[in-house]
Amino acid sequence: METAPTTTIIREPQVYLVGRQQVDDAAIAQFLGDHDVSKWSTDTEEAGEKLVEVAGRLCYMSFAKPRPGGNHAYIGHILEVGHGSVLEHAVFNLIITGVSRSFTHELVRHRAGFGYSQLSQRFVDESECAFVEPEPIAEDPELHAIWLRAIEASQAAYRELADGLAARFSSIEDKTLRRKKAREAARSVLPNATETKIFVTGNARALRHFIEMRGDAAADAEIRKVALAVLRLLKAESPNLFGDYEIVDLPEGGQAAKTQFSKV
After folding, report:
1. Alpha helices in the chain (DSSP H)
2. Distance (Å, rounded) from C-alpha 213 to C-alpha 142?
3. Mean pLDDT of the 226-245 span
4. 120 with 78, same domain?
5. Order of strands across the sheet with 91-100?
6. pLDDT-based confidence at 152, cuts 50/70/90?
7. Closest CA to 107 of 198, 204, 33
8. What percent of the chain has pLDDT over 70?
9. Within 13 Å of residue 146, how many CA atoms lie on the same side as its CB?
10. Is 214 part of the annotated catalytic residue set?
11. Which of 62-76, 198-212, 214-228 has the lowest mean pLDDT?
12. Nearest partner of 148 among 163, 162, 130, judged by Cα
């Protein structure tokens, strides 16, 4: 007797910081030498923070007259005066998994300063895909049962459609094209809860805007959870660029991000 496939349910996203910038210190030194700056240094080793400072100092050619307090004080002043354009020179690469298609529909609305590469439902077989369950549904056994029935029905329909369409397109010699045509049609029955994976590149200014907008108490619960996960990673990676944010507990449950330097 054939065992029915189980449905994988995900309730927590995962965020991975997979890419960091690299600074060419020799090229910066050559630039400084060419412009009669005999000595300049910064106390940060994080590339994004260093590049933000170089970009900011270039605007005023202030390399020879650094203010006290090092990179932390310099970027703190940038945040205070709202000189946010120089933050666009710091770039971070993230992989986000365990999130729903609902989440990515909202995420990709953030266009300026971002780049995206998402899992393809045309090329990837979703017969064994996972699903992301919203917390309020997961907490209620009756609501969970309703949700699970809908999820299982949609996945069963996808499998039947994919198999039927593959048979219908059997005359197509190119196997990749045959499978792509079957999956692109069958995916129409998959719900917004279908789990996906997305590679995200963003500059520090764009990421701050994302955290501020989507980490807010009024944001959708799933994207707020991801925004806070991104914030925790970036606060640890680059405290001078993201350390002004704090994560606060909400009276109704959950958490949100707050900063005194909004809309930089």
Report:
1. 25-34, 47-60, 70-81, 101-107, 135-138, 141-168, 175-186, 204-214, 221-237, 239-242
2. 33
3. 98
4. no
5. 14-19, 91-100, 195-203, 114-118
6. very high
7. 198
8. 98
9. 7
10. yes
11. 62-76
12. 130
Query: Residue 8 above 80 pLDDT?
Result: yes
Find the length of the chain: 264
Mean pLDDT over the full length of the chain: 96
- For residues 14 and 26, membership in a common domain is answered with no
* Whole-number pLDDT of residue 1: 47
Instruction: Say what the alpha-carbon torsion angle 118, 124, 127, 131 is, to the nearest 10 degrees.
Output: -10
9 with 42, same domain: the answer is no
105 and 212 co-located in one domain: yes
Dump pLDDT digits (tens) for 125-148: 999 999 999 999 999 999 999 999
* Catalytic residue of the set 101, 214, 224, 232: 214
Report whether 213 contacts 219 (CB < 8 A).
yes
CA dihedral 68, 44, 115, 206 (to 10 degrees): -30
> Position of tokens 């998402």?
118
